[in-house]
Amino acid sequence: MQTLEDIKSDNKIEKVIPFIPEGDFYFTKGVEAFQKRKFDIAIKWLKKAVEATPEEALYHCQMSIIYTEIGAFHAANQILTEVLSVNGDSYIDCYYLIANNYAHLGLLQDAKKYTESYLDKAPDGDFREEAEDLLSVIDIGDDDDDEWAFEEEDELLIYQETAFHHLERQEWEQALTLLEEMMSVFPEHVSAKHEYSFALFFSGNQDEAIRLETQWLEDNPQSLFCHTNLAVFYYERNDLNKSNQHIVSIKNVYPIHEQQKLRIANTLARTGHYKCAYDRFKLLSKGHLKGHASYFKWYSACLYQVGASTKALSLWEEGCKKYPFLTKEASPW
Q1: For FRET with 16, which of 92, 139, 185, 220 sits at 20 to 30 Å CA-CA?
Q2: According to the lineage, what is the superkingdom (predicted)?
Q3: What value does the mean pLDDT take over residues 233-240?
């Protein structure tokens, strides 16, 4: 039986919505670019198609599929929800596409709800087999706490995204306030406490941040969060010996998830291990990390340090264009 990770990794939405002969020129170009996996170009063409014929739901649906492919699951679902709102069940496949995006986000209750809606409305639909597979691996069962679970997942997601927003912009005080509340509401959410110590360190309370991470490391000596944070903390305090002790602990770690891969790459870059960091950044899927300004910042730093200054400048400029707040910082080299 497939695992949820199998479904997420194997069930890439490769199906292209069929081309309508009288469709717009822009749409045709967008589909061609999508098939060649040139996603940035595909998005540009599809945006032109939507602007030219905004009432054509097909163009919106194809745009959502591209967003799914690059990991912009929220943006994809926003488009699909609007299509259903305007067109009703004329585009039943939207239910499955929404469910798939929720599964990628880990919002399994929502994924189950939309998968069941799809199977109810289209028992012989194009995505029937995929929907049944997805439903079988979610297998969360029905209980009296379903409504509460929906609300809890949504609330956690809001906390995560808001905290991430402040952390990326180095708005430490705002992040600390939010993360303190998040830890109170979701005490079992491990990453929140480590993001808290990170914000604590850079807000000026360095000793307490190190004390917390050291304590947590004693409880879990294999913690990637602890090692990456302590490596950065000690490097910032010019204690390179202690910093390198933690770098040694992560150099042979190769996580499966992109977020953890990025954490290691960023840590290596922040602590001056540019060649090692460069090797890690090359393994990352850029399409799934476009929401991370830190990717552009630290990867461009690595590129510069390994002699690829032209690529470094190009990536830095791309990052500044996508995230204007980066322009307030000096270039990372």
Answers
A1: 139
A2: Bacteria
A3: 96
* Cβ–Cβ < 8 Å for 127, 135: no
> Quick one: 54 and 72 in the same domain?
yes
Q: Name the residue among 157, 137, 91 with its Cα closest to residue 118.
A: 91
More confident residue, 254 or 318: 318
Regarding pTM above 0.90, the answer is no
pLDDT above 90 for 24: no
Identify the CA nearest to 227 among candidates 170, 176, 268. Answer: 268
d(CA 234, CA 328): 26
Asked if residue 276 is part of any domain, the answer here is no
User: What residue type is assigned to position 67 of the chain?
Assistant: Y
Show the tokens assigned to 184: 């109170």
Looking at the structure, tell me whether residues 119 and 11 fall in a common domain: yes
Single-letter amino acid, residue 29: K
Last residue of a domain, one of 115, 138, 161: 138
The mean predicted confidence, pLDDT, of the chain is 84
Residue 36 has φ and ψ, to the nearest 5°, of: -90, 5
Contact 80, 64 (CB under 8 A): yes
AA identity, residue 99: A
Token digits of residue 207: 């000793």
Sequence letter at residue 251 = K
The angle formed by the CA atoms of residues 328, 158 and 43, to the nearest 5 degrees, is: 65
Q: Which of left, alpha, beta for 128 (phi over 0: left; psi -120 to 50: alpha)?
A: alpha
Cα–Cα distance for residue pair 317/323, rounded to 1 Å: 10
Residues 50-60 have pLDDT tens digits of 888 888 899 99
Averaged pLDDT for residues 222-241: 94
Residue 228 CA to residue 246 CA, distance in Å, equals: 7
- Contact predicate 250/264, CB 8 Å: yes
Sign of torsion over alpha carbons 317, 322, 327, 331:
negative
Its domain, for residue 35, covers 4-138
In this structure, is residue 256 part of a structural domain? no
Q: 83, 61 in Cβ contact below 8 A?
A: yes
Token representation of residue 285: 């899927």
